[in-house]
């Protein structure tokens, strides 16, 4: 299956997807960034994938930017659009267009800690576990159907950096896995429910 990846920054998540591509059922056919200097674009080029910069600052509003993005993505015929550290909220038109085919990874055990700074809030609240969630994107921020979650214990000595490092290591395992399951037809999403077919893992 064909996937397009959207990002805004470093792109370590994209790198994990690139690294697992040879043993997966997906092909990354394009990478888009709203930040022209995102290192993720360089990672794409290093892997011989076309990286497109579409700077949101050149557009008058979100809707105009998203429409342009849609026009650039559509000719690539993606089966799935995969958000990997894409730091802009997508308009309802964009989300509807790719309904059931648009996924994200968010660094918390949703529905806890939606939005930004999840590590800070986890530590501030004294949570004993933290983690990450792969989910379908819906109109409401960080609220679509959950596909897969991974959790880990928070240690008393943890800082934002140590926690982020461990969560990211997990993200780099579960995101390629979830995308592979979707693309192989093993994972089926309908309305707000996601299930695995009955093949052994
Ligand atoms: C990841 O932690 C992901 O959960 C969040 O953004 C981060 C992206 O990191 N949505 P990177 O740019 O892929 O390194």
TrEMBL record:
Ranges where the Formyl transferase N-terminal domain occurs: 1-179
Molecular-function GO terms, alphabetical: phosphoribosylglycinamide formyltransferase activity
SUPFAM superfamilies per the UniProt record, alphabetical: Formyltransferase
Active-site residues, Swiss-Prot/TrEMBL: 106 (proton donor)
CDD domains (alphabetical): FMT_core_GART
Cross-referenced NCBIfam families: PurN (TIGR00639)
Protein name (Swiss-Prot/TrEMBL): Phosphoribosylglycinamide formyltransferase
Species assigned in the record: Endozoicomonas euniceicola
């Amino acid at each position: 299956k064909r996937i397009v990846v959207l990002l805004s920054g470093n792109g370590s998540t994209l790198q994990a997807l690139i690294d697992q591509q040879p043993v997966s059922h997906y092909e990354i056919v394009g990478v888009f960034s709203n930040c022209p200097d995102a290192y993720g674009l360089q990672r794409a080029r290093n892997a011989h994938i076309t990286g497109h910069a579409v700077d949101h600052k050149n557009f008058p509003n979100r809707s105009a930017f998203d429409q342009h993005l849609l026009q650039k993505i559509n000719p690539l015929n993606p089966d799935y659009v995969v958000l990997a550290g894409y730091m802009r909220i997508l308009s309802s038109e964009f989300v509807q267009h790719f309904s059931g085919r648009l996924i994200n990874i968010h660094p918390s055990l949703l529905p806890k800690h939606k939005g930004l700074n999840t590590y800070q809030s986890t530590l501030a609240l004294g949570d004993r576990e933290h983690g990450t969630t792969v989910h379908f994107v819906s109109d409401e921020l960080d609220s679509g159907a959950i596909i897969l979650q991974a959790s880990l214990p928070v240690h008393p000595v943890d800082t934002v950096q140590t926690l982020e490092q461990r969560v990211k290591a997990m993200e780099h395992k579960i995101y390629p896995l979830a995308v592979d399951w979707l693309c192989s037809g093993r994972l089926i999403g309908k309305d707000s429910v996601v299930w695995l077919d009955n093949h052994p893992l």
